[in-house]
Amino acid sequence: MDVEVPGGSEAVGGGTDTGSESSFKVSQVEIEDVEENLKNAEAIFEHLEQLPFQVFILSEFGKPIFVNNDRNEGEVVSLAALICAFVSRCQSWGDSLMTMTSQDNHIQFLHKSPLIFCVVSKYPEQLDQQLEVLFEQICSILSKSQLESVYKKKGDNYDLRKLLRGTDRLIDSSISSWRASPINLVDSSISAIPMNPSDREFLSTTMATSLGAAKLDGALFGIMIAKRQIAAIVRFKKYIIHPRDLNILINLVSDTTLQTDSQNWVPICLPRFNDTGFFYAYISYPWCNKEQDVPACLVLLSVKRDHFDGLKEVRQQIVSKLENNSKFFVNFSQAVKAPNLYQISQIGSNSESLWSFLYLNHSSRQVCMSASKIPLITRPERWTARCEMRRSSSLSTQHPHLRTLFVRGTKHCLFVWVTDLFSLYCIFGPFVTATIAFQIVEKLLKSLKSHEQRYFIINTTSF
Amino acid sequence: MLELGAQFIPFEPDRSAHDGNITRNFFDCSSQRICTMRNNGALGLTSKSLQNDKITNVRTKDRGEPSTVKFSSDGRLCAMQRTPNTADIIFLEKTENSLCLELTVSTKSKEPLLAVEWVTNNQLLLVNNHSAELLYINEDKKSSKVIKTTNVNAAWAIYYAPCQLLLIANGQSCSNLQPLVVAHSQFTRMKNFEVDFGGSISKENFLEKDAAIATIYGKVYVMVFRYSNRSATMLDLYELPFDATTVPSFKHSLILGFNGGCGIHVIDNLVIVHHQSSQKSLIFDIRVSSPSKSHSPLVTTTIEPHPQHQPPPAVYTNFWFTFLPEVVIDSSGGVMYSLRLKNEKAQLEIAEKHTMLEFLARRKNEKKLFVSTLLSCLRARALSLRQIRKVFAMLSGAGKAEKSENPSENGTASATKAVMSCEKYASLTVTQQEMQSSVLIPLRFIMSSFSRTSASWNFLNFKFQEDLSLPESYVANVMLQYLRSLFDAEITPEAYLIEMVVETLAEAGEMSKLQQIVTYRVINDSKPLAFLLLSYEARCATLFQSGVDILARNKASDEIVEVMLEKKQIVDAFRFIDVRNLNDALIPKVVEAANHHCSRQTRYAIKEHLTEKKAKGIFFLNFKKFSSLYKSIGDDLYTEAEIQEANVEQSNCTLFEI
């Protein structure tokens, strides 16, 4: 089965191929170069030590497929061989290598035949999930079944880069969105753009009715995305879409090369939905590059390849309906241009000592995070707070019995509350006591409950 | 180890000249004087002693050859026995025609006298076969008066002047000994006891020459030679109790290992037996622990003459007479010598270092030698840790043991009255200060780290630093043992000692040991100690906490805040102030430290906290101070632009990674 790969051409592929072969030849003929290579390898190791993290993707046979941080895969051939040796050795013992830890370097492995994933990081939290997300990202480009068959067809030594050409960017952004997005701190979750409940209602019903009226057999989902957050999502009957798959979509539509007023028709596999088949995503930015400049993106998903025209019509309908309701459209543009996050001051008096929070609803896997607040302003300040939350999140997954946690740090206090319904991670000022922290948190929960529809998508409208 | 003649005095040797002039010498054991009589005193009576330079030189009537000559302790009177039944009192300071006045005394029964002894300056003790009489001699009136008489059955009698003790032998083979204390013009009978002298057909009776009395380690012993045909001679020691009701008991047996003529000395609580034929002297220390009552000689040595005698006199000759405690009289040369122990040679003579150290510790006035020897032993690492502990326990425990001994003595005294007293034995006590200045500090000086770090020391001792440097842990262990001995003896260690132990442990890297002695409060809390521990934080992080704990126990909250600020734990310091409700005066200090060292975030938190405190009314600084404090933190910690940018980034979910 031929696959349409976004971007790339055969000619370029040939070029890289010969390039790698020639370097291969050189290292075989000239012995002095071995030392050169060793030095080179040492330099790479040194470089790796300084990076916050480094990801390697390689085939089971040790062929590097992807490395991040703008490195050429050829440079890390020896390292890839080492990783491959580690993994296959453990496999030969009937075991599988999960993780290696040195003082402050954490190495996580994931072996999903025919690929091996490896990440080296200074932060040990959630590395396993990171690798799974990467695997799913690759699946979304190739689908799992293709991935398995391609090596059988083309031989063990096949360079998968030929198939993935041009998607490095997506893998890169997937990595950075997982690591750097404030939303994905806690497992795989999504965030809803804060909107008036009535506006959200209007948006989702408009999308649902337009999709329903088109009667396109195979069009399953409609999603409105802005600023990496979901404005609305509609679905066909009982089909549901997993947050991880949604994050793959968010990752795709956040790619700046797509953000024009043109329309895109992209085949995409959503592995949590079905890792063998492809969806066709109709992606459009209806108000982009016009005078409005509303950064919203409409994604319509269908399983049929020939639905492009049908979905195009649906999109036209939705856009015109939304634009016709001027009152809605003003509100919507406002909410999407500058999402109005939950302000901690909304809690009420005496909440000054709460600096930041992240609330995760377990059933809908939606998070609500607080707007930035003094003193967590600069990137390092916010990053430290985030890392703190990430760490406590992985702590609570490791120790499921852990329900509440209050840590008095030298810079701030951390309050974690995990129940069956929600997880709440709070950063407080350093002088707060556990009692006061708890009182503030109770008020916060009450306030969130009363504004639930504003910060969460409660019901997914179906058509 | 034995030196002859550090003190000596010459006298005129015995002589029977053809011209009829006879010179006779007598030694008075009680007054330790040698008396030379020429022509029975007609040509002169001279008495000398090693202890003082006073030489008595008088003439007496020639009334026959005396058999004993005894001087009163003040040297004014002399008792002389010229006939078996009577004694003559010579008034040495009263003369008539340059001859001394005399007075003849005898017992009531006029029987032959067995002993004539001065009990005090004017009380004379006469013993015959059936009685012992105490006479009062009136020097002015030149008269005598019987004060007390008691009936005894005596074969022979010896008198031990230091304890005013009369020992009377009676019974079938004279082996039943009856001690009597002559004090306060009274005779007090103590329990009699039987001695085993190895009697046989050839040796039926226990003889006076085979018995001696001496004070050893604060106890009075009767020393008895026990002969045996099969095995070698033993010297048995019977301890005399101080009261009249306890029976004297056999305590020690010294194995001499030879037969033949010998002499005994008791010098500095050591029993020294000289054997003439083998020219050896055996030194016994009854305190050296022995599994049974038998003791082997600790040192076998030969007497060496003091270098001041040139040519050196012959030793162990037939002309030697030995008298307790340390007198040697060379009758042919006419010299009275004293015998002296040369303890500094003990290191060579006693191989076992531990025994040697204990030996030195028991010697009189040898503290300096002991301490220096201890130091050299430690320096050479010649002692095992266990032995070190024993030595230290002895030093520290000595005072305590004596204290515990004394009440028990008093206790028995109340029940059974002590009738006899003797010279007390004081064991060596080395104070902590002495220990530190002469042993522990020198040890530290040769510690390897010290010689490594101190350049000047390196320079001075460049040569022997290599072989002598000690591992720090060894020194630390030695100090710990010393500390332990102090604790065992319930002596409070001085602060400076603890400080040194702590420093040494830290230098030795024995952080776990240090931690333990702090944690288990082996060493007392003190602020200096706390600060010392704090200073070791770099070496062992947990010690810091120990130090803070000590401060906390001492309720030194202000210091804790200071320490925290020093450690830049500003937030913790502020929390501590809150929890302890400390003086607000500390707060400006905290704020100042925060302004210097803290991130903007923390400063903001402190500012907010101050506001909150103010609002709650638990802040007592006046408004002016407060506002200046508030101002010092800064009003513009965060700029508007920054806040705006953060807000946009946060709401747009901007990706970034540090």
From TrEMBL, chain A:
Domain FUZ/MON1/HPS1 first Longin span(s) in chain numbering: 55-173
> Would you tell me the Gene Ontology cellular component terms?
Mon1-Ccz1 complex
Q: Check the UniProt entry and state the signal peptide residues, or none.
A: none
Q: FUZ/MON1/HPS1 third Longin domain spans which residues?
A: 354-452
Going by the UniProt record, its keywords in alphabetical order are: Coiled coil, Membrane, Transmembrane, Transmembrane helix
Region listing for Disordered, in residue ranges: 1-23
> Which ranges does the record mark as transmembrane?
414-441
Name one process (GO BP) from the record.
Answer: endosome to lysosome transport via multivesicular body sorting pathway
Quote the Pfam families the UniProt record gives.
Fuz_longin_1, Fuz_longin_2, Fuz_longin_3
In this entry, which stretches build a coiled coil?
A: 24-51
Domain FUZ/MON1/HPS1 second Longin span(s) in chain numbering: 219-319
Q: Which family does it belong to?
A: Belongs to the MON1/SAND family.
PANTHER family, per the entry: SAND PROTEIN-RELATED (PTHR13027), VACUOLAR FUSION PROTEIN MON1 HOMOLOG (PTHR13027:SF7)
Q: What is the annotated role of this protein in its UniProt record?
A: Plays an important role in membrane trafficking through the secretory apparatus.
Query: Protein name, please?
Result: Vacuolar fusion protein MON1 homolog
Which species? Caenorhabditis brenneri (Nematode worm)
UniProtKB/TrEMBL annotation, chain B:
What InterPro entries does the database record attribute to this sequence?
RMC1 (IPR040371), RMC1_C (IPR009755), RMC1_N (IPR049040), WD40/YVTN_repeat-like_dom_sf (IPR015943)
Residues annotated as domain Mic1? 463-616
Q: Which PANTHER family match?
A: COLON CANCER-ASSOCIATED PROTEIN MIC1, REGULATOR OF MON1-CCZ1 COMPLEX
Q: What is this protein called?
A: Uncharacterized protein
Q: Which GO terms describe its biological process?
A: regulation of autophagy
The chain positions of domain Regulator of MON1-CCZ1 complex N-terminal read: 26-143
The record's GO CC annotations read: late endosome membrane; lysosomal membrane; Mon1-Ccz1 complex
